[in-house]
Amino acid sequence: MKSIVISIAGSLLAWSLHAQVIPTGAMRRTMWEGQLAGLIAMDSIAKPGMYGIGPLEHLWGEITMVDGRCFVSYVLPDGTVKVEERSDVKAPFFVRATVTRWEPVTLPSKVVDLPSLDAFLTEWAKTSTEPFTFRLRGLVVDAHVHVMNVPPGTAINGQDEAHAHQVVVHDRNNEGTLVGFFSTKHKAVFTHHDTNIHAHYISWDQKLMGHLDVLRIDPARVVLEVGQ
Predict the structure, then answer these.
(1) 1, 25, 65, 138: least surrounded by Cβ within 10 Å?
(2) What global pTM score does this model have?
(3) Can you point out the beta strands (E) in the chain?
(4) Per-residue pLDDT of the chain (228 residues; tens, 9 = 90+)
(5) What's the CA angle centered on 141, arms 120 and 50, to 5 degrees?
(6) Is the Cβ–Cβ distance between 143 and 215 less than 8 Å?
């Protein structure tokens, strides 16, 4: 495999080309053009080594795939979030990669939230033009995740309309995993227009999972890895 050498703060890091990232559908088509129907079935890709994230079809929840295990979160009538492991679902847009191994990356002390993680990964990957998947595992000081909960039959004509129906849940001082994807070239495809990363969070006990909006971490108590 071809290697890439990256210089950060005077140190050299060598890493092999990462696992191929495959997007299906696009965030903009769902959020701005009303493409809510499922385009990809999870049971067709749920195999060992597969990692992926996206919303549940019709924006009725969230999907996170971890090593081929498919977790679905949705909102109950009482407003609480429930997580189930099941693969008989579809997503209107989804990004995925088959990871054969994880390469650890040392986090500097300045990485304490999503913006600083985004900035670090952007600098770390500045010599590469390809998207990649990453995961962050360990103690999460604070995580705010949302779970889409659009009522059946609702037309969506913009991101604000879609997010008006989301439910936000907090998780604090808990162990968990972030499954994320990085790209500088896929804005409105699988990242938002103002960031290079899109991540979902799932707690260690699998009782909470959703799209990650806010994050606080102690970099000394988490492990960052890039998929190869």
Answers:
(1) 1
(2) 0.91
(3) 3-8, 11-16, 21-24, 40-41, 50-55, 62-66, 69-75, 81-85, 90-91, 94-98, 102-105, 132-147, 167-182, 197-203, 209-227
(4) 333 333 333 333 434 468 899 999 999 999 989 999 999 999 999 999 999 999 999 999 999 999 999 999 999 999 999 999 999 999 999 999 999 999 999 999 999 999 999 999 999 998 877 999 999 999 999 999 999 999 999 988 888 888 899 999 999 999 999 999 999 999 878 998 889 999 999 999 999 999 999 999 999 999 999 999
(5) 60
(6) yes
Q: What are phi and psi of 149, to 5 degrees?
A: -150, 55
Tokens at residue 24, please?
Answer: 């299906």
- Cβ contact 95:198 at 8 Å: yes
User: How is residue 55 written in tokens?
Assistant: 């919303």
Q: Which two structure tokens, joined as six digits, stand for 76?
A: 């109950």
DSSP conformational letter for 185 = S
DSSP string, 10-25: TEEEEEEPPPPEEEES
In whole angstroms, what is the distance from residue 13 CA to residue 3 CA?
A: 10
Question: Cα–Cα distance between 219 and 96 in angstroms, integer?
Answer: 26
